[in-house]
């Protein structure tokens, strides 16, 4: 054995090659945060939810405008992972604020809204794509059917992150409609993952069996049920024990580690990061340390969640909106039809639970934003070649339009319907919520 | 122009190749945080500062033991950057708790301690290396002198992060000695960067001029003076304005962005990330929103700072401690001598300011841990070939030993000297500080 080999230590991490890019990365992060808050403030001043400003901040800093946010390389990867931490923290916080009993109470309404909100847009997209004019490739035979299934699948998505932030920005998280929307969006996310598995299989050309789909469904929902069931039993005792430890910050660090663990386990079980983080929040909302955890997690989520929304905004390509060529104009027409179908399909889902009493238009509009979930679907279609560049562009425009149209629409609907007092009264206006910070 | 090119959007970040490793990364992070808190708790139970437990947690999870923390690849890079965010948040928090007037009051003592604490260990290391037996290469002529300069330089480092955490763990941040130590450690860090520039030049074989060294010195200290001077003038007005904004979390997000920006600017000006973060904290400690900012930054720092300490611990190679071969035993002997010189040189610096009254042993011991700064120096020596693998191993053992010996020594000294009430009385014991969390 060579003595040198015994003595050889691994290179210190901070001396790695990429280290010189850290100052640039920090400046990009600072720019993202400052732009998010300034445009969020501007959005609130013109009567819109702050998250709309954060999305616009992302568009402005993104590669099709100022080009400040890197979309590739080590810095791009790092911002992507920080954005994931942001959405994990956001859903964890939303879970902490969620009352499980209330979720069960509105459970059947949520389920009905989710199922109709998946089925209708899927059918709309499938049928439209089979008969619509298609620029670019994939216009005949089996390939057309595959592309149509893909477009339908993309229309089923709902971004629970965007919807929840809008509800939170508006101070409406405790309304009946918010509970139904969050529940339906979570169910929709789980369904979306199953659909994604199936659609990816179709795109890859592998056979899709009923048994395979059933297994994916069982795994995804099974994780949620087992995690919340087991967690609600174990977590109160675990956190009573942790609370007795005297080392500093022990509660908030364990709570954060708990959210990270459940997010990771959810993914490994075939569900999604954000479903695990949401489950972690719901579980910890039943502990005695709930208040301490929530008040300390809030500033952490407040710092990282905007990175997610700015990152979502930065993936928007402004060039798609430039009708310079006939082909681009054709794409814009298709995108417009898709957007209308996407909105009608989700809004109609608001009428899916006739036995319950709630503001149906509000719930339907709450399901409209496709956000990052829609982007993931569309991107798989593009990378596997199922969607041509033109088709991908049209789908992307639909995702963008639904994401940007929902926040102001929700705001307007909450304002109008709370004036007529159809349901629970709305909370006080936003700026009085600042003390919650 | 091809229509497809107009429509082509950049790939969404979350669909990048590395995405599948995110669950694993989250589990590693969770393991780091849980191990940090459990071993931190264990350290406190046996009467040691929590940071010692976090370092041990890193050793256990590191590549020479359990191998859970990746030291390379995308995950390794990501943990490295998160660790940097952790140390930025830590120094920002320490800066927020620092009273600039108090720093100026003890400034001459800090400067004297820093200068002697750099000069003595450098001289000790240089002279010893010229005459010591050396396993491996680099034993003759000019190469020996270069290596000796390098070893001397490595002995000059002080880890302000580790020392500050120990002082904070012990609830002693407001003592006279803590102020002198923090001031001296910051000056030492700035000096260290200048030395690093010079030594890197020597290692690369380039000529080192007095003008070059003076420029590096002026840039590094100049940044600190200009940033704090200008910042103290501008920041109060800026944050009064920000405080009037009504969007949620605006204060903590701007404060964090401010710390990131100054950390980046410090690096670009030839200083260090942590100096910039510390300066940002000092500047914001003079704003009217200081209390709100500090209480909201604290849980964020509480989550991320342990990632830094666990990361430092994970770069320790346990194999170095295995005296299996004669060469390894020879290295252990050299490492022991280096450690003694490293400790004596820094402890002696405690007597550097005879005009001031403070517990000199305490201040000297506070300067002992080399931590991450020493590791950076050692690694440059290894990569440039100035230090042989054996010499690198010996230097690394010295860095480890000084880092691990300081926390318990400081704790013991604070306990003993506060009993005899030589200086200000010590604060109440640690567990009563939990309400500070």
Give a description of the structure.
The structure is a homodimer of 437-residue chains. The first copy, chain A, has 437 residues and is an all-alpha fold. The first copy, chain A, has a domain at 98-289 and 324-426: Na+/H+ antiporter like fold (Up-down Bundle). Helix content of chain A is 73%, strand content 0%. Chain A has 17 helices and no strands. Chain A has helices spanning 3-7, 22-45, 50-61, 73-96, 100-105, 107-131, 141-156, 160-169, 176-204, 210-244, 250-268, 273-284, 290-314, 326-348, 360-366, 371-384, 389-419. The longest helix of chain A is centred in the middle third of the chain and has 35 residues, at 210-244. The first copy, chain A, is globular. The N and C termini of chain A lie far apart (60 Å). Chains A and B meet through helix 1, helix 2, helix 4, helix 11 and helix 13 of A and helix 1, helix 2, helix 4, helix 11 and helix 13 of B.
Q: In a few lines, what is going on in this structure?
A:
The structure is a homodimer of 437-residue chains. With 437 residues, chain A is mainly alpha-helical.
Q: Give helix and strand order of chain A, one letter per element, not per position.
A: HHHHHHHHHHHHHHHHH
* Mass-distribution shape of chain A: globular
Based on the structure, what is the oligomeric state of the protein chains?
homodimer
Q: Mind describing the biggest β-sheet of chain A?
A: none
CATH architecture label name of the domain at 98-289 and 324-426 in chain A: Up-down Bundle
């Amino acid at each position: 054995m060579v003595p040198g080999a015994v003595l050889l230590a691994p290179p210190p991490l901070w001396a790695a090659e990429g280290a010189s890019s850290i100052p640039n990365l920090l400046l990009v992060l600072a720019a993202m945060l400052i732009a998010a808050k300034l445009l969020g403030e501007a959005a609130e001043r013109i009567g819109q939810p702050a998250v709309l400003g954060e999305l616009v901040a992302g568009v402005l800093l993104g590669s099709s405008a100022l080009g400040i946010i890197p979309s590739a390389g080590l810095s791009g990867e790092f911002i992507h992972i920080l954005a994931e931490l942001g959405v994990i923290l956001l859903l964890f916080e939303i879970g902490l604020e969620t009352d499980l009993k209330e979720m069960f109470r509105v459970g059947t309404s949520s389920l009905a809204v989710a199922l109709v909100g998946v089925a209708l847009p899927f059918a709309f997209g499938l049928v439209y794509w089979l008969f619509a004019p298609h620029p670019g490739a994939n216009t005949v035979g089996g390939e057309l059917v595959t592309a149509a299934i893909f477009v339908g699948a993309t229309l089923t998505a709902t971004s629970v992150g965007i919807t929840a932030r809008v509800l939170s920005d508006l101070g409406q998280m405790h309304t009946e409609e918010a509970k139904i929307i969050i529940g339906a969006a979570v169910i929709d996310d789980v369904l979306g993952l199953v659909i994604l598995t199936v659609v990816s299989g179709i795109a890859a050309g592998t056979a899709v069996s009923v048994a395979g789909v059933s297994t994916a469904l069982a795994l995804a929902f099974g994780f949620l049920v087992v995690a919340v069931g087991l967690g609600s039993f174990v977590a109160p005792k675990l956190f009573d024990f942790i609370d007795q430890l005297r080392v500093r910050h022990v509660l908030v660090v364990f709570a954060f580690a708990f959210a990270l663990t459940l997010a990771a386990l959810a993914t490994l079980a075939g569900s999604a990061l954000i479903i695990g983080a949401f489950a972690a929040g719901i579980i910890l909302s039943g502990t005695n340390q709930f208040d301490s955890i929530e008040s300390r997690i809030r500033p952490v989520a407040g710092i990282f969640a905007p990175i997610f929304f700015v990152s979502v905004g930065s993936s928007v390509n402004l060039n798609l909106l430039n009708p310079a060529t006939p082909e681009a104009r054709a794409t814009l027409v298709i995108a417009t039809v898709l957007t209308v179908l996407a909105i009608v399909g989700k809004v109609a889902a608001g009428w899916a639970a006739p036995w319950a009493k709630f503001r149906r238009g509000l719930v339907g509009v709450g399901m409209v934003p496709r956000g990052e979930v829609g982007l993931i679907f569309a991107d798989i279609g593009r990378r596997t070649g199922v969607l041509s560049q033109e088709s991908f562009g049209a789908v992307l425009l639909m995702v963008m339009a639904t994401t940007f149209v929902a926040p102001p629409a929700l705001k307007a609907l909450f304002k109008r319907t709370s004036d007529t007092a159809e349901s629970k009264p709305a909370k006080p206006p936003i700026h009085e919520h600042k003390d919650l910070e």
